[in-house]
Amino acid sequence: MEKAPNRSKKSNTPPAQSKQEKMKRIEYKGEHIRASRTGGVAARATVSDKKLGIGATVNTKHGLRLHKRLWNGARVGFQKGRFQFIGRYGKGPFKINQSKKGFSASYSNSFGSYNFFKPQYSSFRMGGLHFRGQTAQMLQAVIMLFVGTFNLILFSFRAIYVLGWVVYQIVVFFVKFAWASFQFLKELVLGFIQGFKETPK
Fold first, then answer.
1. CA-angle at 76, arms to 74 and 78, nearest 5°
2. What string of DSSP letters covers 80-118?
3. What's the domain range around 117?
């Protein structure tokens, strides 16, 4: 009797990497303590010399990291034998970010930042909780939509006010010009009539 061939059951469980990407990150970040839902609790301390631009950070989870400032906004570092390069340029809320993988652009606000080229790297902070990934991307989109709508309404009111002020000034100018022209013609006609009456026959 022939044995039925073994049919390999396909697992419906996605790979670990896909699971990790879908996980929502919740984090508390203090001055020396950092706790997250996925990473646990870790303590860290940083020592740096601002004049030389050299610093070191000791982390109970990731070990020692050495970093050196290259120029304003850019630094290099080493951690666990891996080379790091981080650069952030720009003033105000819009920044250009540089790393070993290339460039990206981000917008920062009081709740975190939104990365336009790599939305999965966006962050959102509120009440000591730190969100990253898809959750942060969605929350930042809501915040930017709200802020953008508010600024658009505010800009519309200002534009209407300025336009009304310009129209008012134009109307006032033409009214004054018309009144001055009327007074000039009136004086001219009255003077002509008065002169005609005083002309000897």
1. 155
2. TTEEEEEEEE-SSSEEEEEETTEEEEEEEETTEEEESS-
3. 25-148
Q: How confident is the model at residue 38 (pLDDT cuts 50, 70, 90)?
A: low
Question: Which element (helix H / strand E) includes 188?
Answer: helix 134-198
Lookup result for tokens 């969605």:
138
In a domain, 192, yes or no: no
Q: Which residues are bridge partners to 29 per DSSP?
A: 34
What is the C-alpha radius of gyration for the chain, rounded to an integer number of angstroms?
35
Distance in angstroms (rounded) separating the CA atoms of residues 169 and 166: 5
46, part of any domain: yes
In a domain, 171, yes or no: no
- Number of structural domains the chain divides into: 1
* 128 domain residue, yes or no: yes
pLDDT in tens, 65-80: 877 787 777 787 877 7
Q: What is the pLDDT of residues 153-172, one digit of tens each?
A: 999 999 999 999 999 999 99
Q: What is the mean pLDDT of residues 127-137?
A: 81
Chain-centroid distance, C-alpha 8? 50
CB 52 within 8 A of CB 61: no
